[in-house]
From TrEMBL:
It comes from the Eukaryota. InterPro entries: CTHRC1_C (IPR057873). It holds the Pfam family CTHRC1_C. This is CTHRC1 C-terminal domain-containing protein. Residues 84-217 form the CTHRC1 C-terminal domain. Keywords: Signal. Residues 1-17 form the signal peptide. It comes from Ridgeia piscesae (Tubeworm).
Length: 230
């Protein structure tokens, strides 16, 4: 009785269940075709049959690997391939000799990137006062401190001619390491020159006469930012 149930009920049911399962979807190499060693693979998923040459599969795999490599190169150290911000102002006309000139906040996405900053616009310094010359320094601060890895990002203007009022275009640029992820307060400032006292007067400085000034900020993948300190 048990044996006949096994034979006439369970076995046919098992065979029937097997036949309803999808056939092995793995491709089987069946026909050798030209070029030599290439072959047509037939795939039968139980619905339709397809055939693809080995060489086509290999070419696709190679393409995918290349794309993967490119994507990894683009995105390593980044959430996105590139992030840049520009803050600009027209007709700034800022006559101050000390303090903040311009602000540009930037949200750094990662700890392991460098921050590339640049400022451009025009500056002037007229010599005033009793000492032999005047000097002013324009410099970036990043979250309240100047860059120390590798160096400050700054410039100095020296003038010993009281009558000279030349507005010069200027461009200051560099990248800074060691800033953690988060909001970075990027500031362009003016103040004393290095070794200001007692040699120099502050003079009469001016930033951004009529024209446009701008700060650029960019987060750069460290492996795209190598540096030689000379
Ligand atoms: C910059 O300072 C702000 C606070 O003013 C802080 O929230 C932020 O995390 C700092 N950014 C970095 C990169 O340390």
């Amino acid at each position: 009785m048990v044996r006949s149930i096994l034979l006439f009920v369970l076995l046919p049911a098992f065979i029937y269940a097997q036949s309803t399962l999808p056939k092995d979807p793995q491709c089987v190499c069946t026909v050798n075709v030209s070029p030599a060693n290439d072959c047509v693979r037939t795939c039968d998923s139980g619905v339709s049959a397809t055939s693809v040459k080995n060489s086509e599969i290999i070419a696709l795999q190679t393409q995918m690997q290349e794309l993967q490599r490119e994507l990894t190169t683009m995105t390593t150290g980044f959430g996105l391939p590139a992030r840049m911000k520009q803050c600009s102002k027209r007709g700034m006309n800022d006559g101050k000799e000390n303090g903040e000139i311009m602000a540009c906040d930037f949200v750094k996405q990662r700890d392991d990137t460098v921050l590339h900053v640049a400022w451009n616009g025009d500056l002037r310094l007229i010599h005033t006062g009793s000492r032999g010359a005047s000097c002013r320094r324009w410099f970036f601060t990043l979250n309240g401190s100047e860059c120390s890895d590798p160096y400050t990002i700054d410039m100095q203007l020296h003038n010993n001619q009281p009558s000279m009022n030349i507005h010069r275009p200027s461009y200051v640029e560099g990248f800074c390491r060691g800033l953690s992820a988060g909001n970075v307060h990027v500031r362009w400032n003016v103040g004393d020159c290095v070794n200001q006292n007692p040699s120099y007067n502050p003079g009469d400085s001016y930033t951004g006469w009529i024209s446009t000034v701008r700060i650029f900020v960019e987060e750069v993948n460290v492996k795209d930012a190598t540096e030689n300190i000379v």
